[in-house]
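User: Let's play a game. I give you a shape written as tokens, and you guess the letters that built it. Ready? Here's round one.
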């Protein structure tokens, strides 16, 4: 599945990751927490990233995120590829 991965102190990057719980947890470094952004987009993060002392990543939608996060598409209750629209939006932002 195509996602946008954002590590602390790095620019976001589009990566492919298996749409499996173990792979998602490994990518964020812990149990995943789902943070809704839009009807078709969520942020996945480590639910205990701050408690575990992971480095600050960013502040989005009024929330501080620590450790690696991923932007993932959603369709109902299923994770899906992040849309091309979202990828273009991010590329416009991080290429400036």
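Assistant: Ready! My guess for every position:
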């Amino acid at each position: 599945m195509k996602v946008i991965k954002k590590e602390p102190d790095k620019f976001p990057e589009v990566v492919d990751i298996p749409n499996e719980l173990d792979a998602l947890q490994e990518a964020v470094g812990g149990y995943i927490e789902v943070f809704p952004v839009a009807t078709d987009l969520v942020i996945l993060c480590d639910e205990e990233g701050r408690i575990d002392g992971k480095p600050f990543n960013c502040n989005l939608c009024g929330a501080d995120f620590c450790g690696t996060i991923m932007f993932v598409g959603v369709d109902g209750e299923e994770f899906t590829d992040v849309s091309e629209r979202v990828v273009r939006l991010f590329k416009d932002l991080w290429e400036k």
